Amino acid sequence: MEHIFGIILSATFGAIFGSYATLFAYRLPLGESCFGRYFGPKSRCPECNSVIRTRELIPLINWLFTLGKCKKCQTKIPRTHLFVEVATTAAFVLCYLEFSFSEQFIIYSMISVGLIILLTTDYTHKVFPQPVLNFILMIGLANRVLHDQNIIDVTFSAAMGVAFAAVFYQIFYKKSGGIFSNQVQSFDYTKFIIIASVCLTQNEFLFYFLVVMAIFTMLLIFNIPNKKKHSNFGYVLIIPFFWLTFYS
Question: What's the whole-model pTM score?
Answer without folding.
Answer: 0.86
